[in-house]
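Need tokens for this chain, all 110 residues.
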Amino acid sequence: MSPEKWQQIKGQVQDQFKDAEVVTEDLGEEENGEKEILTFTGPVGKMKLEYITRPVVIDKKTHGSRRIGSHTDVEYVYSDTEFSHSLKAYKWDENDQIWVEIDLKGSFTI
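Here are the structure tokens for all 110 residues:
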């Protein structure tokens, strides 16, 4: 999903639902990127949208030996200019007290 489309969806949700709240989190060293989380209460209950931005992996280097039992490290090289974007949606399950992911295939034009 493009950043422009995400801004449009985020704006619509914030206009329609006054309790909409946006939080930005860093994905950390392991995943490298950031996540924008939009929570609100919609017609079907409590909802959460996660917009994840990561740099594109342009190279993968493997370090290690071919001996049995040796340890192998993988080093990823990330692009400074190209990014991948994804959107995930969740609905709060009152019974189990967990977020349940909603399948978004075909919901938005990407």
